[in-house]
Amino acid sequence: MKSFGKILFLVLAAMPLFLEAQTKKERKGEFYFSWGYNKEWYTNSNVKVNQPSLNNDYQLKGIKSNDNPGWDDGIFNKPLSIPQYNYRIGYFFNKKKGLAFEINFDHTKHIITDGQQARVVGNLGGRQVDTSVNFSKSNGFYYYLNNGANFLLFNIVKRWNWAESKSGKFKLDFLGRAGIGPVIPHVENSFFGKQNEDGFQFGGWNVGVEAGLRSTFYKHVFLEFTNKVDYARYSNLKVYQGRAKQAFGTYELILTLGYTFPMGKHVVVTN
Does residue 190 have a pLDDT over 90? Predict the structure, then answer.
């Protein structure tokens, strides 16, 4: 019994040391930023045009659109901001639960596809019409959000850890995002040969959801590949002596390179 008592005493005496070994201090939060590029596909859409001084109030129905990646013909031979790009700035305010707040900007380019037969329905010069036009720049018809359809989103991010090396130098996470925010299009167009004064404007709102994988190397550098679905509604877009509105859905593929590091107060965590 005396031997058992000594063993018990030694175990109890060592417990504080054991517990100390299982706890550590680390930063409460985690800050990150990233930059990357994207590819888009758009749903067909209607463009409603209202030009009161011209007695025009019509729709372009079922319009097909395309993007303009830019990076597919070379990134390093042009400024980094010319191709379709993305940047993200975020902060994991609860690392344990994997929750973050993020500002996400997608420089997406939306162009009504050249060469299509566009159906025009409504009033032209006060006359009721239901006709079609050859939508091409050479014919006086073009519609570019080529300096950006420009989705700005304020996201909530959730992170799930899938795998991590024993050394901690490699980590694979699954991320989900959802957000809402304004669109900031650059509008450049011509209808029936009448050009607008092009420029940037706040032009509506968008919502988006996103999912993908993040691979982190040496605890700080990460590569992220995600799929995104976005819905945007544009209003009061500038056209010649009038305004236009439009709504469309977008499917995006996004690849970004980023950097992450601990931030915030130190807290004690137990393994």
Answer: yes
* Lowest mean pLDDT, pick from 52-56, 127-131, 165-169, 248-252: 165-169
Query: What's at 261, amino acid-wise?
Result: F
User: Pick from 53, 55, 70, 134: which is nearest to 108 by CA?
Assistant: 70
The CA-based angle 193-195-197, given to 5 degrees, is 175
In whole angstroms, give the CA distance from residue 198 to residue 203: 13
Domains of the chain: 2-270 (2.40.160.20)
Residue 169 to residues 134, 205, 216, 222, Cα–Cα distance (Å): 57, 40, 8, 11
**Lowest model confidence (mean pLDDT) among 16-30, 57-71, 155-169, 235-249:** 16-30
Phi, psi of 22 (to 5 degrees): -95, 0
Per-residue three-class SS string for the chain: CHHHHHHHHHHHHHHHHHHHHCEEEEEEEEEEEEEEEEEEEECCEEEEEEEHHHCEEEEEEEECEECCCCHHHCCCCCCCCCCCEEEEEEEEEECCCCEEEEEEEECCCEEECCCEEEEEEEEECCEEEEEEEEECHHHCCEEEECCCCCEEEEEEEEEEEEEECCCCCEEEEEEEEEEEEEECCEEEEEECCEECCCEECCCEEEEEEEEEEEEEECCCEEEEEEEEEEEEEEEEEEECCEEEEEEEEEEEEEEEEEEEEEEEEEEEEEC
Q: What pLDDT, on a 0 to 100 scale, did the predictor assign at position 263?
A: 78
